[in-house]
Amino acid sequence: MIHTSHGQRIVCLSALTSLGALLVSGCSSGPLNLQPKGPSGSTTPAAVTVSTGAQLGLIWNATDATLRPLVGVPGSTQLGAPLFPAGAYVAGAFATPTQTALLIDPKGNLQVLALPATQPLTLTQGLSASSSILFAPRGAYAAVFKPGSTSVLLVSGLPQAPVVNTLTASAAIQGVAVSDQGTVLVAAGKGTVSVTAITSGGARSTLASLAAFGGMSFISGSEDSLVADAAANTLSRYHNGTATLLANHASGLNQPFAVAASQDGHWAVTADQADGILLRVDLTGATPPAQSTCACTPTQLSALSGNAVFTLAAPASAPGWMIEADGPASRVLFIPPARSGQ
What we know:
This protein is mainly β.
């Protein structure tokens, strides 16, 4: 069974001070310390600067544990300098729609950075360094969980008034997804994986049983979800609890591990673990599924700025890759590696 327990509500007001440097003034209700904190727990001595101009958002680079801007447009990008020193955080993610980052420091403090603020604020403590962070499609909700654990931290009210709640499960959690209305999907179990839906009002139901978890996501602005089965090689859309098969092995699915949807709800994209194939699925049903390949091993499908632009592999000393999936055909695009000295 999955249940919720209410946490702390945090309200922060941000003020624009100049074209370049921006500061946040924090205020709070409840006992949480909301002063800007550095990774060591002390006040951050200097605010970070986020470059202006065309950007595809901030990306978390697990190779050197940095949060960096991806400057430019699809097909012509450059990885910017990190917002924080390498190693200052151990996990992070960014939501372009709300311009909000969630970060975990080496002490397990969960921090929020809501641009144009330039210093993160601590939300809660005691998180694992191996936690995963994901956002709802429009960025107002997020989930933080350690794969294999039995709890999920749900953050709502982003970016300016975050509320922290805890969800728990009776089996090991393999994946989580969050809708723009605050519904949470939790995929848990060994062997057969049960996908449980819990609404913002607390109603719970079993959505699906999977032979193996292959990724899941909500469609932007909708309670419809996309769920992939990595053993059955299926991708299904769930609407009001009823599943519609969208793609299978004959379409090109081969052990999917991630699925994402475009902001306009037109396209879904899956990434395969077995062969690295990317499959674009037309959610309107007007065109058949189409495959794309990458000169990489995809590790993620993380949303960037744009309707259907997703990171496949983050750049570091080696190149990164992205997919732009909302044109006449999908484009798999190169991201240059970080420049020497960055």
